[in-house]
Design a protein that fits this description.
By secondary structure, the chain is an alpha+beta fold. The chain is built from 2 helices and 8 strands, in the order H-E-H-E-E-E-E-E-E-E. Strand 6 and strand 7 form a beta hairpin. The radius of gyration is 19 Å and the shape is globular. The protein starts with a helix and ends in a 15-residue tail after the last strand.
């Protein structure tokens, strides 16, 4: 009876751990895609969305619809909040209403296996932006049946 009870407790603990959302630290580094898979983009064949590459203290963004390319410096304030600052434009024209001295504060509000939801505010006082981002998996990822532990 004690063995059965121990086995039941172990199964319950495993099931609880399996259902937890991943930590925000999973998204410190990686390649991410925001938008671009909406119905209109697929039908029109026009690229849209933002592709982001975040490594260390640098974030590069490519806005596919406009061709705009930006580089930000990244500062993590806590596990789920980071700031983007010191913006550099490497290609295209940026919205004149924004300033290269603006600091964007991004708070990850929810996570799931391969993505997160966020809210973003700016020091310029612009309206808060909310959205979702999906992690871009390398081609062939998961073909072996292995996962990253979630």
């Amino acid at each position: 009876m004690a063995r059965l009870l121990s086995l039941l407790m172990l199964c319950l603990a495993f099931a609880h751990a399996k259902g937890q959302s991943p930590s925000c630290t999973l998204f410190v580094h990686g390649t991410f895609q925001e938008g671009g898979t909406d119905k209109q983009s697929v039908i029109s064949g026009k690229p849209s969305g933002i592709r982001t590459l975040r490594r260390g203290h640098t974030q590069k963004e490519h806005h596919k619809a406009t061709g705009l390319k930006l580089i930000y410096q990244v500062r993590w304030l806590d596990e789920c909040t980071f700031q983007l600052y010191d913006r550099k434009v490497t290609h295209g024209k940026v919205d004149p209403a924004t300033s290269p001295t603006d600091t964007l504060t991004v708070h990850i509000t929810d996570t799931w296996q391969y993505g997160y939801a966020y809210s973003c505010t700016s020091t310029s006082g612009a309206q808060e932006v909310i959205g979702t981002v999906e992690m871009v998996m390398p081609k062939g990822y998961g073909a072996t049946g292995f996962s990253i532990g979630f």
